[in-house]
Known about the structure:
CATH class of the largest domain: Alpha Beta
Domain Mvd1 C-terminal: 179-315
EC number: 4.1.1.33
Shape: globular
Largest sheet: 8 strands, mixed
Protein name: diphosphomevalonate decarboxylase
Number of strands: 14
Strand content: 25-35%
Helix content: 25-40%
InterPro entries: GHMP_kinase_C_sf (IPR036554), Mev_decarb (IPR005935), Mev_diP_decarb (IPR029765), MVD-like_N (IPR053859), Mvd1_C (IPR041431), Ribosomal_Su5_D2-typ_SF (IPR020568), Ribsml_uS5_D2-typ_fold_subgr (IPR014721)
GO biological process, one term: isopentenyl diphosphate biosynthetic process, mevalonate pathway
CATH architecture of the largest domain: 2-Layer Sandwich
Order of helices and strands: EEEEEEHEHHEEEHHHHEEHEE
Bound molecules: (3R)-3-hydroxy-3-methyl-5-(phosphonooxy)pentanoic acid
Oligomer: single chain
Amino acid sequence: MHNGKARAFTNIALIKYWGKKDQQLILPMNNSLSLTLDAFYTETSVSFSKKYTADSFYLDGQLQDEKSTEKVRRFLDLVREQSQFFEYAIVQSQNFVPTAAGLASSASGLAALAGACNDALGLNLSDKELSRLARKGSGSACRSIYGGFVEWEKGDSDQNSYALPVPSNHWEDELAMIFILINDKAKDISSRNGMQRTVATSTYYTDWVKNVDIDIKKAREAITTHDFQALGEVTESNCLKMHATTLAASPPFTYWTPNSLKAMNKVHTMRQAGQDCYFTMDAGPNVKVLCQKKDSQKIYHELQKEFPAEQLVMAYAGKGMETLETEV
Ligand code: PMV
C-alpha cells in the first residue's frame, strides 16, 4: 500500500487562460496570471495497492459515478505511465467550499491530486514538474501549486508549459477578493467546451490572443510596482475581452446572467463613488471583486446592501500546495 495526501487552494486568473492549442497535453494559446486564494481548497488522499482491481473516487465521502471518476482515472493513468508504477488507487477528496454554490474547483482538485500522487509514490517531483503534471489534469491546476501571484508560461511542449510564482514582495498579502455567488440557472457550458467552441469559431479570438500578451505585461508591471489601480484595470478589462470572445462564437454564448450584470454594475457604481474595486468572472455566472485588504470590510458591507451574506465570501491570498500527514 502506498499512501499520500495533499491540500491545494484554488486560484482565480486575473489574466485568463482561454483556449488550448493542444487538447491532449493541455497546452494553452496564451500565458495567464492568477492569484491563489485561501477560501476554497481541496484535500485529497490517494492509496495505491495491488489489492485493488479498479480505480475508485470518493468526493466528500460519496463514491462517484463513472462519469466523474473518468477525469481522475485519466490522471492516474498519466501518473502510472510517468512513474512506471502500475497499481490501481482509491482517491478520496474533500472540497472545502463555504457554500454549495457550484464552486468546487478543478484547479484545487487536480493540484491536490498531483501532490497526493507525488507523496504516495515518492516521486520527488520539483514544483515545476508538479505544475506540469497538474496541468495535464486541468489547465488552471498548474497555477495552484504555488501561493500568491502565479504566471503560467504557455510554452509549446509538455516540457516547457508550466507555472511559476511571480515575485511580488508579499504584496498579495495586502489584497482581497470577494466572491459574489450568483445562483441564477446559467446555461452550463464547461470551460473545456466553451474554449473549444471559441477557438474554433469566434471571430474575435485572434484579437484575444494578440492582446493578452500586452495585458500580461501590464499585470506583471503592476505587481512589481504594487500599483493596485493598474492591476485592477487590467484584470477587469482582460475579463471583459475573454467574455467578448464567447459572444462572437458560433453559436454564440455567454456565462453572464442578469445577476452577474447586477454585480458588475454594482462594482462600477462603487468605483464611481470612490471605492477601489474591480471585477473578474470565469466560465460561470459568479463575480469576483478584487480590492485591497484595507478596504475589504467596507466593500463587503456595501455589497451586502445588494446581495445576502450567504452569497458573499471574503478571500485573501492563499498558500501553495502542501503535503499532509496520511491517517493510517
Ligand atoms: O482549467 P480549466 O479547464 O478549468 O479552465 C479555466 C478557465 C478560466 O477559469 C475561465 C480561466 C482561468 O485562467 O482560470
